[in-house]
Amino acid sequence: MLRVATYNVRGLKDDRKALVRVIRALRPDVLCLQEAPRLPGWRRERRALVRAAGLSVAAGGRVGGTAVLTAPAVRLLHGRGHRLRWFPGLEWRSTALAVVEKTVEKDRERYAVCSAHLDLLAGARLRHAAQIVALLERAAGEFGAAPVLAGDLNEIPGAPVWRLLGGRYTDCFAAVRGPAPRIGADEDESRAGATFPARDPRVRIDAIFAGPGLTVVSYGGAAVPAEDLTAASDHRPVVAEIARTPSARA
Asked: Which keywords does the record carry (predicted)?
């Protein structure tokens, strides 16, 4: 079983001690970051964060601010950052992708995990999502790994990117909680799983998707005081426990 978390950390502009406490509470095997540091000194800032969190950098560079971090419990087989198609006038986006192996009851399970931060513009979001799926599935096929995609989609469930990803993968939140809220649902139901803004979450724009051959065991957030969540970033993180079915194990 693999614990995968995703977290938009807003360029480390907020309370870094609270951020480290949140990350440690997530207990991730793999952590997908969005808005990792990109300004001068970004390498130093990223190293300080991962050292404090007890993790290592597996993939990701400066452009696009995406990264994948790993815990000592997993072995890194492959890590790389990919620049996505550039659209004039828009931010240059990227994805970070790592293939990891974890030993579970003498079985070696391989996962290809991708961190994504999609654009604010709908057309660019959809094209980038399709490009990311192709990169992820190519790496998964090359290493005999199960694909997992996590990140900040900048879009709410039911919109085009969610439909694209949902047609190929399992939305981990929906797998645990059940169908999406009905039209006309009350506010508590419609906000279930919301991740943004951290102070008063209203929309679910951060998600984890599991590929074929994977079972979602659990899904949730960080067990920390609410003040840490609001101090650490403007997003809330999510974490899923994902297991390979016996027939899909490497």
From this structure: DNA damage, DNA repair, Hydrolase, Magnesium, Metal-binding, Nuclease
Give Cα separations from 9 to 137, 143, 151 (angstroms).
26, 29, 11
Please state the domain count of the chain. 1
Task: Quick: pLDDT tens for 84-126.
Answer: 999 999 999 999 999 999 987 778 899 999 999 999 999 999 9
Residue 22, both tokens: 């949140």
Using a CB cutoff of 8 Å and minimum separation of 24, what contacts does 158-167 make? Answer: 159/122, 160/122, 160/125, 160/126, 161/118, 161/125, 161/126, 161/129, 162/207, 164/126, 164/129, 164/130, 164/133, 165/129, 165/133, 165/209, 166/209
Tell me: the pLDDT tens digits for 5-29?
A: 999 999 999 999 999 999 999 999 9
Residue 11: give its domain's CATH number. Answer: 3.60.10.10
- In angstroms, what CA-CA distances link 64 with 40, 69, 75, 96, 136? 14, 16, 25, 9, 17
Q: Is there a contact between 64 and 40 (Cβ–Cβ < 8 Å)?
A: no
Q: What is the CA radius of gyration of the chain?
A: 17
Cα within 13 Å of Cα(123), Cβ side: 4
Q: Could you please report the per-residue DSSP string of 192-232?
A: TT--BSTTS--B--EEEEE-TTEEEEEEE---S-HHHHHHH
Q: What is the mean pLDDT of residues 209-224?
A: 96
H or E element, residue 131: helix 122-143
- For residue 11, the enclosing domain spans 2-248
